[in-house]
Amino acid sequence: MTRAQCIGVIDRFEDDVAVVLLEQDGNVVDEQGIDRDNLPAGGDHVDAVFQITRDDSGAILELEYDAETTRTRKDRAQSRFDRLAERPPSDDES
Fold first, then answer.
1. Integer Cα distance of 52 and 20 in angstroms
2. Among 17, 27, 40, 70, who pairs with 65 as Cys (CB 3.0-4.6 Å)?
3. CA neighbor of 69 nearest in space, from 26, 16, 14
4. Beta bridge partners of 9
5. For residue 93, what pLDDT band results from cuts at 50, 70 and 90?
6. 24 contact partners, CB below 8 Å, separation of at least 6
């Protein structure tokens, strides 16, 4: 049996199922539903990042919440938002 590593990010919840986008090399390659009760502690929120190991059939063998990467991605997104939200000075303010 072959094992494949990928990153998973919770995109949304549909009732009690987390819809996880699976990424490889920065690209979304698949999505998978995971029961909310099966998520690791701390990882039951939108944008939570996981290290995932899957088998040949795509079944998840290991699911580990990656708090550090989750925090890093959140900080980067907030920084981009803050930069975009800054109003350029008007001609009157120059």
1. 11
2. 40
3. 26
4. 21, 49
5. low
6. 6, 7
- Best CA proximity match to 73, nearest among 50, 44, 39: 50
pTM: 0.80
Would you put residue 47 in left (φ > 0), alpha (ψ -120 to 50) or beta?
left
Contacts of 59 (CB under 8 A, 6+ apart): none
φ/ψ of residue 69, rounded to 5: -65, -35
Contact 44, 59 (CB under 8 A): no
Q: What is the pLDDT of residues 44-66, one digit of tens each?
A: 999 999 999 999 888 899 999 99
Residues 3 and 53: their CA atoms lie apart, in Å, by 6
